[in-house]
């Protein structure tokens, strides 16, 4: 908690506010990280409801909002969407107007029609309520449409089955049905792989940061030379096209589209047809971006963005071959309005600046006549941004194909960030009227106080609006998933707990002054499973932090792997959990990008860093003592297992911890690549922004010297660590 703040020890909410919060999925209490009950303050609950578009400012307003919610539920002919598991007959309610009869049919995704939508047994003991119907249990996986048409019934057939009124003209409605896999298959074989922030590991051929050609090379080399089965990278989502570039890959302007900074310019086929003068210009631009061997201790994203934007503009002007142009046109058709909106936003950003709220007001609506006119006026720039996405899609596909061709059973594991920047393209579109307001722009997502972040976290990302997302048939969500899965062997879902409940921080509140908002997890997880199934991909859920126990059980039952981090694996008495008792259905790692590299943790350097940056709420000596005791428990386990000899150094201890990791039954074993070269600096320090160079550090060895991709095959630490895992 923040200094001077006290969490309510008992609920201070009125009965009306409790009922209204429950109706909209706002939790009024939760279990804190110490196991205590934490109650939300009334002002917090009112603010969260306000971000949901619900007025709870007075008891009268709360009662009116409850009545309106109940009226909307009772009079809606069909639910907004149905997300069901394959093989299960599922019920739903049709609110048939009084004096009407209903005709129901299902239009299948492939164009077929099903009319066997049967009524439930009817009211009575053990029966279904009035208006209940059932979806057949044998519908195929996919997205279908349920249609309902109500028409006045003949007078002799009128009954009391209706619960809503309507005029004599009848009523028609439809809703989407998603039939999702009951369970996803886990990886057929156990494998290990590197985890790396791609930008932090450039080759000597790339432009200042690691790119998609580097990813293909890393996957191919680690598969063929070291027997790796996957490479897990940071989110490759798009950042703003104007400077300064946001450093965090977890705060993108769009999750639907990747970032052009990851393009290998020379790999674009049209690059070969640049004139000699244009090639010379491109070489000068490459030099201005730096490379992996320039010795700089910070990555310069602004220089990379500027250089690649100019170079790609040169290549964009090169005429495409007949076949290449046909492919480009097909790509534009496939991506549709989503791509046009994103490219338009990029063009407007380059003209009016990065914050769309500061643009002329008439440009705030993506569907306005003024936006359409600007799109026409900026047609060349819009086409450039569409074209770069086509180039990216081609290189993403090539990276995954290179990984699988080299023998990786999984290949590239892409990371799906929690949310997007409030000033970005997704917020501009999805927060608008046309976007259905499916992003709640009056709040941001984050996390409550916990052991690692004792003041809580505010990620500055507008969360999904659960009701409006359902009313949109989850279309923005499913389109996002299709895009991320398209060139992935697996997808890691950051903060997968957000599919169940998400910590909402109303604008102006501190991170601790928030509340959990619940989502329809059956729908959110089911759609995730459906899109993964269609892509033939694995799903990994990052399920760390404050987790309700049943959530992990549910995810495992759906075939979604969890995340097991060695330092957090403990029994109910706080002792290190023997690796044989870890979850088999998980990705196991020693550390992550949000934790200290293993070499630094073994030396306790992270405590020194936390103290220096004033991130501790307890006495530093207490933190050091607890950290030392924690480490010693793990080292003692290593000694008992014979993994660690007396007097072993830091490098041997890092390898011993990975041998312990390999003793777990987990399907996937992840190695934080900086551990393989002795890097001691965390990539990210949660709870900080400008205090620490988050996301700006290139991979370095234990002495702070930059490491390039080409250095890995001859780095003795990397070779030795891979051998330890390969020989598990």
From TrEMBL:
It comes from Embleya scabrispora. Keywords: Carbohydrate metabolism, Glycosyltransferase, Transferase. The keyword Mitochondrion does not apply. InterPro entries: CHASE_dom, GH, Glyco_hydro_77, MalQ_N. It comes from the Bacteria. It holds the Pfam family Glyco_hydro_77. It catalyses: Transfers a segment of a (1->4)-alpha-D-glucan to a new position in an acceptor, which may be glucose or a (1->4)-alpha-D-glucan. This is 4-alpha-glucanotransferase.
